Amino acid sequence: MLVEVLKAFLFIILGAVGGYLLRRYLSESKISNAKKTATEMVEDAIKEADRVKKEKVLEAKEEILSKRNELENEVKERRAEILKQEKRILHKEENLDRKTESIEKKENTLDEKHKRLETKEKELDSLKQKQLSELEKISQLTFDEARELLLADVEQRISREMAILIKNKESEAKAESDKKAREIIAYSIQKCAADHVAETTVSVVNLPSDEMKGRIIGREGRNIRALETLTGVDLIIDDTPEAVILSGFDPMKREIARNALEKLINDGRIHPARIEEMVNVSRKEIEEKVKEMGEAAVFDTRVHKVHPEIVKLLGRLHFRTSYGQNVLKHSLEVAHLAGIMADELGANTRIARRAGLLHDIGKAVDHEIEGPHVTIGVDILKRYKENADIIHAVEAHHGDVEPKTIEAVLVQAADAVSAARPGARRETLESYIKRLEKLEEIATSFPGVDKSFAIQAGREVRIMVKSDEIDDIGMVLTAKEIAQRIEDELEYPGQIKVNLIRETRVTEYAK
Q: pLDDT averaged over the chain?
């Protein structure tokens, strides 16, 4: 049994040794074959690389040869071109030499001609002097006198031609502009037809009975004196039945007095202390009313972001009149007119409407501050930081400065339209007569004017000219000069028509 085990163990050892030797033999055989294969592959790669190298070298040589041929051809072409350019340059140099010679010859010729011309000019000057002296002897005029006569004649002809040209151009422009202006203004007035109420300087307070007059006067007149002192308004108590008249030029004070007197009459207690109390109450009510009217005006014209103090000043314009025209209503109308015209012309509607509303703001305090209302209004608007365009339009609406924006021109036109509308304003008889006399005086002061007549309530001046002194063309210049002088020397609402009439009469007798 042991022997079999040993045999078996021996066989296992022999088998392991034999297997090891067999695997080693096989492994060495594979390595040998791999080395052989690798050697063959390397040799093949070296051969292939030599072959590719030779091909690339050949290709490079061929390309170098090709480039060399191209460069040689290009060099040949450039040499040929350079030769051509050299030939052209030589040809041009030859031409320039010939031209230079020709120019030198011409210069010599010109010099000779110049010398001959100088000689002839001297001869002409001497002949001219001789002719001038002969002409002076014949005409009995010196050179300066003849020149003045000639210039006067030329000036007269030019003036005539200018007048003809001005007349033609004005006719063309006026026909078109008048049509457009009438359409815009008519449309504006149709859309904005404000009522005008003629204000007076008195107010009437109705009384329940004539007995109330004595109570208003009070013992020894103390009540009436207190009322007049506190309000600054005169009370007129006369034979008018059941009525008391309040007289004063300040409509706001007159309204405060009227309101206070009505409250006293309704209350029945009339004595100085009660009068003072009612006057203070009325003053507060009127101030509140002023604020409400200013706010209503701003709302009605759609003008936004107005300073509260300016709103109050606008409300005060309700109690201010100008030639009988309510200034607040006038300002509202100017704002609407300017806004509508700006919209029609494509201008800034907001600026035109705002400037129109504020253009007479200075009239709210012109009885408290010295100076024209335009200057006062400009100062007020500057104080409350108004827009520069608004301030300029306000400053230019009476022509104190030249309008620089279309909105300023529109405010000026709207102000004239509102003021010039028939019935909008009234004038005192004295100022009306003075204006008519001044119109006629200006017209008759011009040479060639025979008579002048102010008609149409001062809206037109009709002038008769002397036909032997002013011709049809001269009438154009004369009319312009008269109109310009009227603009410079007179103040008036709207516009004045200057109408020149020239009549030529020829009389002959048949015998």
A: 79
Q: Would you state the structure tokens that stand for residue 287, as one six-digit string?
A: 């101030």
* Cα separation, 355 vs 384, whole angstroms: 14
- The pLDDT tens digits of the residues spanning 21-63 come to 777 777 777 777 777 888 888 888 888 888 888 888 888 888 8
Q: How far apart are CA 104 and CA 114, in angstroms?
A: 15
**Is the pTM for the entire model greater than 0.85?**
no
Burial 211-221 (b: 16+ CB within 10 A, else e): ebbebbbbeee
Report the distance separating Cα 89 and Cα 230, nearest Å.
Answer: 112
**Dihedral angle over CA of 138, 140, 143, 145, nearest 10:** -140
Concatenated DSSP letters for 345-390? HTS-HHHHHHHHHHTTGGGGSTTTS-S-HHHHHHHHHHHTT--HHH
pLDDT at 197: 43
How many angstroms separate the CA atoms of 21 and 9, rounded?
Answer: 18
Give the residue among 340, 334, 382 at the shortest CA–CA distance from 362: 382
Neighbours of 173 (CB within 10 A): 10
